[in-house]
Write a structure and sequence with these properties.
Layout lengths: L1 H21 L3 E2 L11 H7 L13 H12 L1 E3 L4 E2 L10 E7 L2 E6 L4 E6 L19 E7 L7 H26 L4 E3 L4 H8 L5 E8 L1
Antiparallel strand pairs: 1-6, 2-3, 4-5, 4-7, 5-6, 7-9, 8-9
Helix pairs in contact: 2-4, 3-4
């Protein structure tokens, strides 16, 4: 019994050592694309997959993925790899990992820690969302947008499409599986993400 208690104590100590490191922002390194895949090859290989490995992406792959999705490609103007209407840049990319939920700060290329809950299963009705290493969630912040509600719905949907296609092309070039999805409980997921009423979930994408 004492040996068992000792093991439990050691286990708790290990958790205490490692858990604080999970509750931190993650600074991503600059994107470094290593392959020579052409745009034509990426377009030819672009496809939706619904079978995913549980192997986690490296931090470099995560960095490259998020930069391709909607990263800053013109630092002087802070404009992005994906266009947005009026350059509103209203789409926030949340990243659901096994270690928790993060928000990509494109300007500083940082994953901002939101909470340590694993909400991957809430990002879609398909079983693979529970174990796939990355689920991206595209959230429109209406407070950043101009126009009436109808135009905000239209443009945020359009802008999310640009981002998801960037992710598709990156994954096709990198040899990663991905699929964009709209089948999830938006109300439940928004509650798990602690979103404001002005924030609206548009799409999710598994990688």
């Amino acid at each position: 019994m004492k040996q068992f208690e000792k093991r439990i104590t050691v286990g708790v100590l290990i958790m205490l050592i490692y858990l604080p490191s999970l509750a931190e922002d993650i600074r991503l390194s600059p994107p470094q694309f290593q392959n020579d895949v052409s745009l034509y090859e990426a377009l030819k290989n672009r496809r939706s997959e619904r079978s995913f490995s549980e192997k986690e992406l490296s931090l470099q792959q995560l960095s490259d993925l998020l930069w391709a999705a909607a990263g800053v490609n013109r630092p002087d103007s802070e404009k992005r790899t994906a266009p947005t209407a009026h350059n509103d840049q209203e789409i926030d990319i949340y990243v659901a990992l096994k270690t928790g939920l993060y928000l990509h700060n494109a300007k500083d290329h940082i994953l901002v820690f939101i909470h340590a809950n694993d909400i991957r299963s809430k990002t879609g009705k398909q079983k693979f969302t529970e174990t796939a290493p990355v689920n991206l969630i595209y959230v429109a912040d209406y407070d950043k947008m101009k126009g009436d509600e109808e135009s905000k719905k239209f443009y945020s949907a359009t802008d999310s499409g640009f981002i998801s296609q960037n992710v598709y092309l990156y994954c096709a070039a990198e040899g990663l599986a991905t699929v964009v999805r709209g089948w999830f409980d938006r109300k439940e997921l928004a509650a798990e993400m602690n979103l404001r009423p002005e924030q609206h979930i548009i799409l999710a994408q598994t990688v």
